[in-house]
Amino acid sequence: MKAKIGFIIVLILGILIFSNLKLKFGNDVGITAEIYIEKGVSETGAVNLVSSILADYRVYDTLGETIILFIAILGVSMILKGDKK
Q1: Domain boundaries in the chain?
Q2: Which residue in 2, 25, 38, 57 is deepest, having the highest Cβ count within 10 Å?
Q3: Range of weakest confidence among 4-8, 28-32, 61-65, 66-70
């Protein structure tokens, strides 16, 4: 049984490593990144490009990530607090 589990783990790791080797690094950025770089500061009015992307273009995504993080912290704190009966 341990050999089967070990084989499955090695197989999954091999697939992940092989798929990462096929990625093309250092190529031109995509069209979305080009638009962010060219028009990001002028469209949003923010001085920082990263802040303009997070606060304007991806506001709903950032809000969703913040809510999920808050719920995870709340769940962990409730588990660690335990029952005080």
Answers
A1: 2-81
A2: 57
A3: 28-32
